């Protein structure tokens, strides 16, 4: 598994995960669990959709 998520992309994904989780908690909805996806992809530095489109934000 080759890393394809750069630093700026990681920061954006982590912020997005925090916002989604906070909204899920605020609205008491299970949709807050969707925050797991951008958080895991940021921590692993790998997005499974990027290779399909031959995208890499890592330098």
Number of helices: 2
Order of helices and strands: HH
Q: Measure the end-to-end span.
A: 16 Å
Mean pLDDT over the full residue set? 96
**Biggest sheet character:** none
* Oligomeric status: single chain
Radius of gyration: 13 Å
- Range of strand content: under 5%
Overall number of strands: 0
Uncertain regions spanning at least 5 consecutive residues = none
The helix-and-strand class reads: mainly alpha
Q: How many domain units?
A: 1
* Percent helix: 40-55%
Gross morphology is elongated
Give a quick summary of the entry.
This protein has 59 residues and is mainly alpha-helical.
Q: Can you tell me about this structure?
A:
- By secondary structure, the protein is an all-alpha fold.
- The protein has one domain (7-53).
- Helix content is 49%, strand content 0%.
- It is built from two helices and no strands.
- The protein has helices at 7-26, 36-44.
- Helix 1 runs antiparallel to helix 2 (36-44).
- The chain is elongated and about 35 Å long.
- The chain starts with 6 loop residues before the first helix and ends in a 15-residue tail after the last helix.
- 15% of the residues are buried.
Using brief descriptors, characterize the structure shown.
59 residues, mainly alpha, 2 helices
Which secondary structure elements does this structure contain, and how are they paired or packed?
Layout: H1 7-26, H2 36-44
């Amino acid at each position: 598994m080759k890393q394809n998520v750069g630093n700026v992309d990681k920061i954006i994904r982590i912020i997005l995960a925090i916002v989604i989780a906070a909204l899920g908690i605020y609205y008491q909805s299970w949709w807050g669990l969707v925050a797991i996806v951008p958080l895991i992809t940021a921590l692993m530095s790998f997005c499974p959709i990027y290779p399909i489109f031959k995208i890499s934000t890592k330098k």
